[in-house]
Amino acid sequence: MFLKNAWYVAAWSDEITEALQQVILLGEKVCMFRDSTGCVIALDDACPHRKMPLSRGRRKGDAVECGYHGLTFNCAGQCIVAPGQGSIPSNARVHAYPIAERYGLVWIWMGNPALADPNEIFDIEHFDDPAWGMNKGKALEIDCNYLFVTDNLLDPTHVAWVHQSSFGQAATIDTPLRIRKQEDGVTVWRWMMDVEPAPFYKKIVEFDGNCDRLQHYEVRYPSHALIRAVFTPAGTGGVDGPMHDKTFIMDSYNFMTPETETRTRYYWFQLRNIRPQDEALSQMMSEDVRHAFEEDREVLNLVQQGMSTKTTPHIDLNIDGGQLRFRRQLEILIDQERTADTALE
């Protein structure tokens, strides 16, 4: 099940060129390319005649010619050439998807175009702030349903077992979780006080000794996440703790785009509040984060396999509270959307 009236990441901006290419999103095939002005165009990747993929056709200026019988479509999806027809059939058109570019990403609206508002795209604090550094990597292809990924991103406890050499530490095993449900999503968080920094962060923080650590796991509907890590010298953290001049903050942005019911494309990057021009630090963080995400991918692929072939019911634990709240509300939103669509038919 997918929420259609929402913005999803279709690609990194530099992945879309003037060449026609097929991108799969929410089980739908989309033909994407840049027109002569550099704008990204997204059309239903199926000629209405015999459903030949337009992405296998040819560019004709800013139009797309089907490679089967030459029907040609403009950037709005309207057929402008129909060889041998005399006149163009009124139903010779393909759907054109609303597109926006922001944060180096191409965003696509898969639902009702009349509802597409770029102001609703996930807001990223500090993206253009010169005081903050960035690291990123290529999108991950994960062979699982996107909700297993959102489950993972609402589960601070998994790092104790999946990421023992990077994000995990003893305190991540049993420090209680706090859950907060908002209108646009769910946040699971906890402070761990006077603990040793986890291995990945120990290489980055600019203070010695123990720390107070915040795990803030926030996922917004339909499948976008902010994972905030705060490491501050022991005694300076907590909900009301003072900000220390050596406090390290890393905001990890994660955008899950469902390709199909069992495959997800995962876009990610991190922003940090220290050493913004340190390219060696950025490279190290990208490599280490990528390695940790590969650990996630291995686990999630196996979870999908296990859940798809289970012969006994699965169980839920107390640590699943945030995930279950998120899934319930998302299901409500999807049902409401379907009801509204049915009423318009």
Q: What can you tell me about this protein's structure?
A:
It contains six helices and 18 strands. Helix 1 runs antiparallel to helix 6. The radius of gyration is 23 Å and the shape is elongated. 35% of the residues are buried. The model has no long low-confidence stretch (mean pLDDT 95).
CATH-level-2 architecture of the largest domain = Alpha-Beta Complex
Structural class: alpha+beta
| SSE run | EEEEEEEEEEEEHHHEEHEEEEHH
Binned, the helix content reads 10-25%
Question: DSSP strand (E) fraction?
Answer: 25-35%
How would you describe this structure in keywords?
single chain, 345 residues, alpha+beta, Rieske Iron-sulfur Protein, Naphthalene 1,2-dioxygenase Alpha Subunit, Chain A, domain 1, 2 domains, eight-stranded antiparallel β-sheet, four-stranded antiparallel β-sheet, 6 helices, 21% helix, 32% strand
Task: Tell me the layout of helices and strands.
Blueprint: E1 7-12, E2 21-25, E3 28-34, E4 40-44, E5 58-60, E6 63-65, E7 72-73, E8 79-81, E9 99-102, E10 105-109, E11 133-136, E12 140-142, H1 146-152, H2 159-162, H3 171-174, E13 178-182, E14 185-195, H4 199-202, E15 211-220, E16 224-233, E17 248-260, E18 263-272, H5 279-308, H6 321-344
